[in-house]
Design a protein that fits this description.
Blueprint (H helix, E strand, L loop, with lengths): L1 H13 L1 E3 H11 L4 E4 L6 H9 L3 E4 L3 H15 L3 E5 L3 H16 L3 E7 L2 H5 L10 H5 L5 E4 L6 H13 L5 E7 H5 L1 E3 H7 L14 H12 L4 E5 L1 H5 L3 H11 L3 E3 L19 H7 L2 E5 L22 E6 L13 E4 L2 H11 L9 H22 L8 H14 L4 E5 L2 H9 L8 E3 L9 H12 L3 E6 H7 L3 H6 L4 E7 L28 H7 L3 E5 L2 H14 L3 E6 L24
Length: about 575
């Protein structure tokens, strides 16, 4: 009799499921098998269970870095990257990355545990009490809360579709603590799950819009194509290449679009950026926005006011005319739009004007020749150009490696110095230009691609996420971090104007040894003082695949205020009397 009862209870238990398992099953059903996060109340057991069910759970030291990892995973895979955080402060830490993902159009889902609704709504003081859904809504593309286990399947499906459809972005999914333990019939639970079908459907451009764009392009005497990171995200690489080569038009890649076609391609105008922006008369934007990175399409960057006509390809209609008039808006997904343009370019399509192509080529070659001696320097202490020249050679020899890049001067100069040869191999600060993405991006790039990663960091930028080198060592990832150490923010020579004992706000510990930090976690640490030493150390790291940090000693006097965007720092015209 007792055995019968025990068997009956076991059978009953097998027929039940709960919130923990339904969330896991919903993610797996939709091919989402990696979670980036930080464990804690109320999601610690969820992480354990997810790992037991075959999901890879990558645990970070700070939620913002986990969120940045999830965001760039979304960019690399076109599936939403998943970030898992605890409630309140942990949620807020992840929210920074979610907002940045939305701004950059990276598909990401931030899943956070939260306090109980009945206590939060009455403001009765629960553990980490916060109305997280209300806070998240203004900062992401969509936000949802699931209160019942039977709705988990729909909640996850809505989050996935919102993240990747149309213009991709960040989505928040709020899961109160009680949800995880809710129990329901297993068969009904399985039926409640949703496999998302055609989450990001093609959006075909209107034929009239395609014809208008081609007519404007055909009229150009000095045409230019600008490729943004949206073009790289689209993974329409062959179509983009065909359009550019068939048209013969010079192209300018924004930083994360570098490598969509090699920077060494004869039509690449990267080394003549100022010239082509100022002198072009028709500009086609593919996955690029006329925001601050392109001076909003106006001002001295663009030469004579009103001298250009713009063609813009974007999936978001509201993006058109956001700063200036767009003569030929082309609304649709990039792959469909580019294919439609190619189809409309018949055998009689005119070649790009030879005088314009020649002028761009000459300017590019002149600028490259002027830069070459700086990149060959083997001076001690290193300056930025000498150090980047060494890294430039490494990427040329290892085009399959992924370059992560952030900093002020370290970022601005690397964009122009280091050529890229393959798409989606350069990952940097993107639209907001924020620091702190480095180690999160590096971890996710290694996890998602299996390729070696070279993270080139300013010493200030590294400080935002530097503790994640422990994460890199813990998971034994093939990541080589190079810290450009000039003892401070912008440079390490500022002085306290008051004459007090405190150092200047932009100055760090003199001659710090970041390489020893890596050694503390079991990784390889190297101190490099010349470009030759730097090149040798990076090559050894990339060959070995071992977690490595190289402290690249840069002249403290090298660097300029805010790099190339110093004009964004307001200046006081007053003098203290």
């Amino acid at each position: 009799m007792l055995n019968t009862v025990a068997k009956s209870e076991a059978e009953t238990e097998q027929e039940l499921t709960d919130g923990f398992h339904l969330i896991i099953d919903a993610l797996k059903l939709n091919g989402l098998t990696t979670i980036y996060g930080v464990p804690g109340i109320p999601i610690t057991d969820f992480g354990r269970m997810a790992q037991a069910e075959g999901i890879r759970v990558i645990s970070f030291r700070h939620e913002q870095n986990a969120g940045n990892a999830a965001a760039i995973a979304g960019y690399l895979t076109k599936q939403p990257g998943i970030c898992l955080t605890v409630s309140a402060p942990g949620f807020l830490n992840g929210l920074t990355a979610l907002a940045n993902a939305t701004t950059n159009c990276f598909p990401m889902i931030l899943i956070s545990g939260s306090s109980e609704r009945e206590i939060v709504d009455l403001q009765q003081g629960d553990y980490e009490e916060m109305d997280q859904l209300a806070i998240a809504k203004p900062l992401c593309k969509a936000a949802f809360r699931v209160l019942h286990a039977a709705d988990i399947g729909i909640g996850v499906a809505r989050a996935i579709r919102a993240a990747v459809s149309g213009r991709p972005g960040g989505v928040y999914l709020d899961l109160p603590a009680k949800l995880f333990g809710q129990v329901m019939d297993a068969q009904a639970g399985a039926k409640s799950l949703v496999k998302v079908i055609d989450a990001a459907p093609a959006q075909i451009p209107a034929p009239d819009a395609v014809k208008r764009a081609l007519d404007v392009l055909k009229s150009a005497k000095r045409p230019l194509i600008i490729l943004g990171k949206g073009a790289a995200y689209a993974q329409a690489d062959d179509a983009v290449r065909t359009l550019i080569e068939k048209s013969g038009i010079p192209f300018l890649p924004m930083s994360m679009a570098k490598g969509l076609l090699p920077d060494t391609h004869p039509q690449c105008a990267g080394a003549a950026r100022s010239t082509v922006l100022k002198e072009s008369d028709v500009v086609m934007l593919i996955g690029a926005r006329l925001n601050w990175l392109l001076s909003h399409g106006k001002g001295k960057t663009w030469g004579k006011p009103g001298s250009q006509k713009f063609i813009q390809i974007d999936i978001e209609p509201k993006e058109m005319d956001s700063n200036i008039e767009i003569a030929a808006p082309l609304v649709g997904d990039i792959g469909s739009c580019v294919e439609a343009l190619i189809a409309g370019m018949d055998s009689k399509w005119p070649a790009a004007p030879a005088d314009w192509v020649s002028a761009v080529k000459t300017k590019k070659e002149d600028n490259i020749a002027k830069m070459a001696p700086k990149l060959m320097s083997n001076a001690f202490p290193m300056d930025y150009h000498g150090a980047l020249g060494a890294l430039r050679t490494i990427i040329k020899e290892r085009p399959d490696a992924i370059l992560v890049n952030e900093g002020a001067n370290t970022l601005d100069l690397a964009r122009g110095v280091i050529d890229m040869y393959q798409p989606r191999k350069r990952l940097d600060v993107g639209t907001w230009g924020v620091m702190g993405i480095g180690m999160g991006f590096a971890v996710a790039a290694a996890i998602e691609t299996g390729k070696p990663v070279l993270a080139v960091e300013g010493d200030s930028a590294f400080g935002f996420s530097g503790m994640e080198i422990e994460t890199i060592c813990r998971y034994n990832l093939p990541v080589c971090v190079v810290v450009f150490n000039n003892n401070g923010i912008y440079r390490g020579t500022d002085v306290n104007p008051s004459g007090g004992s405190d150092v200047a706000p932009t100055v760090f510990v003199k001659d710090a040894r970041y390489d020893i930090m890596m050694q503390a976690f079991g990784g390889v640490g190297v101190n490099a003082t010349t470009p030759d030493e730097l090149k040798r150390a990076v090559n050894e790291a990339m060959d070995s695949g071992k977690p490595t940090l190289i402290n690249a000693v840069i002249d403290p006097t090298a660097g300029s205020e805010s790099g190339r965007i110093g004009n964004l720092n307001p200046q006081s015209v007053l003098k203290k009397k």
